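# nightly structure sweep
# worker-07 picked up a monomer target from the shared queue
# config: single-sequence mode, recycle default, output format = structure tokens
# input follows
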Amino acid sequence: MPEKITQHTSESDPSLTPRKMELPPSITCILPAYNEAENLQEMIPLLCEYLPRLSGRFEVLVVDDGSRDATSAVAIQLAEQYPVSLIRLSRNFGKEAAMSAGLDHADSDLVILMDSDMQHPVDVLEIFYQHWLEGYDMIYGIRADRSDEHPIKRRMTGFFYHMLSQSADVEIQADAGDFRMMDAKVVRALRALPERKRMMKGLFAWVGFRSIGVPFQVAPRFSGQTSFGIRRLSSLALTGITAFSSTPLRIWMFIGAGISCLAIAYAVIVVLRTMIWGVDVPGWPTLVAGIGFLGGVQLLSVGVLGEYVARIFSEVKARPVYLISDYHPASARKKTEHKTESVD
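# output follows
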């Protein structure tokens, strides 16, 4: 059995080899966006003001996940001033697909994933970058505080990630999100994964590499409300369980074995009672209750099995994770202008 994949949060790793760069690395900052027009007007200028501290060779890649507002129009407008590229998906495929689209089109030495709502602080990027220079391949943000969430959601989130980490072959931290910086080799590894239905947090953990977590405080949304509600969270949780753990199938296998043993034991008791005391007519309530209980267990176990079969069906169809409607790459002139400004 392979060793469980874990992510490190310690800053002391004797296996690290510091990076020596002759030139600053090229950087792509991916911003998945769904109805984030107002936030992008603030987020992109802020990023383009801060990223030159790390490198003058950078671009901001906005992935419009089927927005119904002016998200794409704002990105195209800002591209006249800043090195901004835009990928517009044909419909709303979800955040996991939007991140995958960004990763597939990021060819830089370093790739940054951030939310478009300004909840991820840009000043943490400098800490990420220093860890990358130390030799880490993936640096991810860890929420230092979840007091802004409802207590029930906070407990259920912690319980879900604890159970998933215990049952899966990867350790996924409950407070680690999509805010992260990755080396190009990590991005290439993620591109090689063929899954259609994705839980990116699990895939980030599965690919491994030298990783470290950095605590940060989540800022309030600049504008609007999150579209990631309970329904999508539940769907993502179900995807995570079926993608990284077969424990539910094993649990129902043991439940089935236990019920079978109880049934055999009860049958032996009935046979012995019949042989000793004769035929016992009463017992219809017990029989009906037993049949109802077993029927419920069977339907529930079929439902659990059905989730895995549905995942197999989805993967076998091999539909693309996303479809691109429009692609507007950043102009080379804008990249050169910002490179020159950073040098000056």
